[in-house]
Amino acid sequence: MMKQEHKRTMGRLVNMHVERKKLYLSLLILTLSTFIGFLFFQLGFNDSNIIMLYLLAVFLIAIITANRIYSIIFSFISVLIFNYFFTFPLLSLSAYDSGYPMTFVIMFTVAFVTSTLAAKIQQNSHFSALIAQRTRILLETNQMLQKEITKEGIIQKGCEQLYKLLKRDIVFYPYSEHELQEVYVYPPQTSEHFKDVLSDEIHVARWVAKHNRHGGASTDYLPNSKYLYLAVRADHNVYGVLGIYLDKEQLDSYENDILLAILGEIAFALEIEHINDEKKQSELKAKNEQLRADLLRSISHDLRTPLTSISGNADMLVSKEQELAQKDRLQLYEDIYDDSLWLINLVENLLSITRMEEGAIRLKLEPQMIEDILYEALKHVSRKKKEHHLHVQIDDDLLMADMEAHLIIQVIINLVDNAIKYTPQGSNITLHAYQKEDMVTIEVYDDGAGIPDDKKEHIFDKFYRGNTKIVDSKRSLGLGLALCKSIVHSHGGEIHVMDRIPHGAMFYFTLPATKLKLEEHGEVS
Ligand code: ADP
Fold first, then answer.
1. Ranges for the Histidine kinase domain (predicted)?
2. What is the pLDDT of residues 493-521, one digit of tens each?
């Protein structure tokens, strides 16, 4: 703040210096005119030439000073000098010729009128320069603020721009939920003294936000404050309170205009940001609600089919067990087992996907043998696997990757179950694992119908079911691959799908290979 005080004193000194320079220049012009007047006088030129000379001088002075007071004073002085030096009796303020007083009056009037006009023109051009500058600044601010998409960005740019223009410290309290939020100060390097002032005056800022009016320095409300506080508002919504360090000084009308215009720009930018934010929130809410509704609808529908079949089969077993042939009984038991396995996997998937999305899962990565993981997964895949030919190929028996085992097992179950579900009986399904650089790749591929290119980009989306004719039943939630993707990504791997030649789909995903710490085993190889 000391620095700011110093800057303002400097500003005043510069102004005084400029004014003094104008005065000296005006005196110089008048002196020069008098010299030239003498020359004209010596050469025997007519009085009117000398009068014209003085008119020219006063005109020039008016252009330089652009001030009416100077015009009056110098018009008057030029008449006096003309009278004193160039009318008889010389070197006296009286005049013999009876026509002279009239000459003086006309000379003064002409000098005064022309110089006033010149000063006015000068002032007008000064004003238009100011207006042009103001328009440029506002346009620049407007463009700057439009580029900012965050609230913080808008506030920072707005304060920066105001500081550049007014050369006064700026503070900004964002206002939301009927509270002033943490203050933003510009320039950021603040002194302790400055912070004390702010905490002393925070009630003024609160008052301004609450009453949506100006307060503090130079206003009716607590004028002794160091800062002038203004509400940043648009359409009766207050988005913040802006403070300008005035400390007893006043803003001139130009500064005031600029301030109000920029304040309007900031408020407008904040309002747009606010509207966009609300729109985003409601879109998100609507999307979440839609997702929830979809999920509920799918689940209730999908749960009903296997549950009805379980209860129907169980009912049959309870009521007609004796009458049923051994073969049919076994079929019913198998169907119940199948349906419950499917239900367990569905619930597992649902639980994992919600936990993944809430970020509740903290992975505990541990080195695992790929072989163990593949065979463990195959134990849980659909019983229909018997109707397909399953092959497992592991390039290195000791292949290991870092993973949370039950999640990766779930990925493999989903991929193999899909391959069983979406290929005809007797199809081949292969699991192939190998290491490339520091990643392990696991492929699950089949020789079924494959997946058309336009579907490939959606199959990892939640609730996407690609209308494939499901061979064994209608059970499809469109969640399996979405979950696989979340799990693999959370492990730092990638998952993709591609075609098999001549037909079929190949899903493959990567996991970080376990780095064997040889030194721990004391081996060097
Ligand atoms: P769901 O199987 O419950 O429909 P998924 O997310 O597991 O959901 O699969 C999404 C879609 O991808 C499936 O509906 C199916 O159209 C397609 N798909 C997945 N795996 C295969 C496959 N091996 N062969 C053909 N289509 C498949």
1. 298-515
2. 999 999 999 999 999 999 999 987 654 44
